[in-house]
Amino acid sequence: MIPRKRTAVPPKLGAGKSRKINLMAEEAWLARIDEYRKRQPGLSPTRSEVIRKFVDQGLDAADAGVKPKPKRK
Q1: How far apart are CA 55 and CA 21, in angstroms?
Q2: Coil/strand/helix, residue 31
Q3: What is the pLDDT of residues 12-69, one digit of tens each?
Q4: Most buried by CB count within 10 Å: which residue of 1, 6, 45, 57?
Q5: Which residues lie below 8 Å from residue 43, measured CB to CB, with a gap of 6+?
Q6: Can you tell me the distance from the alpha carbon of 11 to that of 66, in angstroms, rounded to the nearest whole number?
Q7: How far apart are CA 68 and CA 35, in angstroms?
Q8: Where are the domains of the chain?
């Protein structure tokens, strides 16, 4: 008998309800996220944690009326 791998159950986020979403992303974009993760000290944050962090920062900046930086090419 082949043992089944146990899948990790993601932790609940915050005190409120959480919903799972699917996101389509280009490989180059994911590579940029992975490079950022590698540069972090200690345990690398997950892709999901990094994406949540940057989305929160972007929304906070938008709420504060900060103009976004021009997109790099």
Answers
A1: 14
A2: helix
A3: 666 677 888 899 999 999 999 999 999 999 999 999 999 999 999 999 999 988 776 7
A4: 45
A5: none
A6: 32
A7: 22
A8: 27-63
Q: Count of H helices and E strands in the chain?
A: 2, 0
CA 8 to CA 6: how far, in whole Å? 6
Backbone angles phi and psi of 27, in degrees to 5: -60, -40
Rounded to the nearest angstrom, the gap between the alpha carbon of residue 16 and the centroid of all alpha carbons in its chain is 19
Instruction: State the Cα–Cα distance between residues 46 and 31, nearest whole angstrom.
Output: 13
Report yes or no on whether pTM surpasses 0.70.
no
Element (H, E) at 47: helix 47-63
Q: How far apart are CA 45 and CA 22, in angstroms?
A: 19
Amino acid found at 30: L
The amino acid present at 51, given as its one-letter code, is I
